[in-house]
């Protein structure tokens, strides 16, 4: 056995000793696994960024820190000062698994929370983390349509039922309005959308990707998914972009719009020429993905407006109300205006 793994198992065994005398109760996560958690939960370690955002929106006082990095000053302006000051704690799941096991255990969390895919691979990962640390490790379903259900389940687990119901109800209303808008959009003709990541716009999400889920949910067609089939993230070429000739280009990297308006190939695209290149807001978290958590609900408020199904009037107010409830801080009108300015088409 590797020395690092021995240290992790030993630390997990040490952590399990104090828990033996604490009152516990069994809960079921989204996979049906029944896990004993403390009756009183005071600290939660989020396994990755989606879990951190979910936990922050419901119970910010339980959040131990941010898995990827602390919020930037621009992001912190949309969060509570207490949350913005939390440290980077590393992540336990995903490609950039950077959490130090000793530091995780030293923070003495009551449980580990993961949020995202519930495929067998991620169930096994949750079981492995639990086995290695001695910490109850819960996995919740990150599917967009299951956000209300997820809030209610997490509210029961954390004893935040009332707060969870407020967010679940708001999520249900947003999802219902988005479904209704999608029906209207499909009746008038689905817009063909290319979603691009990175400063040069040559990465996208394929059909069924969690990264493009809200575009398809909103009733638009993901041109990359239609052409390339199902999958996750994929690299694309300018030849493919020009052949697809999308009606809209939605970017998430703040440097991409300026690049596209200067690059001869991107600039030749009719959507760019017509001003149908927009930047999805990304503060404090992305509206399309990055990361794909409950922050995507904001994208479902925005996309029906972008595609002309809902009026622009009322969008700023809806965004403000979302921030106040989910992010625990009501943004100033100037902040919301700055978010929306690059997210709506140029006239």
Keywords:
347 residues, Rossmann fold, 4-stranded parallel β-sheet
Summarize the structure.
It contains 17 helices and 11 strands. With 347 residues, it is an alpha/beta fold.
Cα radius of gyration in angstroms:
21 Å
In helices, the fraction of residues equals: 40-55%
At the first level of CATH, what is the class of the largest domain?
Alpha Beta
Principal-axes shape call: globular
How would you state the average pLDDT, rounded? 92
Characterize the structure shown.
The protein has 347 residues and is of the alpha/beta class. The protein has two domains: 3-142, Nitrogenase molybdenum iron protein domain (Rossmann fold, 3-Layer(aba) Sandwich); 175-343, Nitrogenase molybdenum iron protein domain (Rossmann fold), CATH 3.40.50.1980. It is 46% helix and 13% strand. The chain has helices at residues 3-19, 49-58, 73-76, 81-84, 101-106, 120-133, 147-158, 161-188, 213-217, 223-228, 238-244, 256-262, 264-267, 270-273, 296-306, 315-326, 333-340, and strands spanning 24-28, 34-38, 44-46, 111-116, 137-141, 192-196, 203-205, 221-222, 233-235, 248-251, 277-279. The strands form four sheets. Strands 8-6-10-11 form a four-stranded parallel sheet. A three-stranded parallel sheet has the order 3-4-5, sandwiched between helices. A two-stranded antiparallel ribbon has the order 1-2. A hairpin with a 5-residue loop joins β1 and β2.
């Amino acid at each position: 056995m590797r020395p690092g793994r021995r240290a992790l198992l030993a630390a997990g065994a040490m952590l399990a000793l104090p828990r033996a005398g604490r009152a516990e109760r069994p809960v079921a996560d989204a996979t049906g696994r029944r896990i004993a958690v403390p009756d009183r939960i005071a600290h939660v370690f989020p396994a990755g960024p989606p879990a951190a955002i979910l936990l922050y929106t419901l119970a910010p006082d339980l959040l131990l820190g941010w898995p990827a990095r602390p919020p930037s000053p621009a992001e912190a302006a949309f969060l509570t000062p207490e949350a913005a000051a939390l440290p980077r704690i590393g992540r336990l799941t995903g490609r950039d698994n950077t959490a130090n096991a000793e530091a995780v255990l030293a923070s003495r969390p009551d449980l580990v929370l993961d949020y995202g895919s519930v495929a067998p691979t991620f169930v096994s990962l949750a079981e492995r983390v639990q086995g290695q640390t001695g910490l109850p490790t819960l996995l919740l379903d990150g599917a967009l349509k299951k956000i209300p259900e997820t809030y209610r389940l997490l509210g029961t687990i954390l004893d935040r039922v009332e707060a969870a119901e407020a967010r679940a109800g708001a999520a249900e209303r947003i999802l219902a309005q988005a479904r209704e808008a999608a029906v209207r959009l499909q009746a008038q003709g689905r817009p063909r959308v290319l979603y691009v990541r990175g400063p040069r716009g040559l990465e996208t999400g394929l059909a069924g990707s969690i990264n493009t889920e809200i575009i398809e949910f909103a009733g638009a067609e993901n041109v990359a998914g239609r052409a390339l089939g199902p999958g996750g993230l994929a690299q694309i070429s300018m030849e493919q972009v020009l052949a697809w000739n999308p009606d809209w280009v939605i970017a998430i990297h703040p440097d991409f719009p300026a690049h596209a308006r200067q690059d001869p190939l991107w600039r030749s695209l009719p959507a760019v020429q017509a001003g149908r290149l927009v930047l999805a807001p990304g503060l404090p978290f992305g509206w399309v993905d990055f990361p794909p958590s409950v922050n995507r609900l904001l994208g479902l408020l925005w996309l029906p407006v972008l595609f002309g199904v809902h009026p622009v009037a009322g969008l700023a107010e809806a965004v403000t109300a979302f921030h106040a409830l989910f992010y625990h801080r009501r943004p100033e009108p100037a902040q919301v205006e700055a978010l929306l300015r690059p997210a709506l088409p140029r006239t």
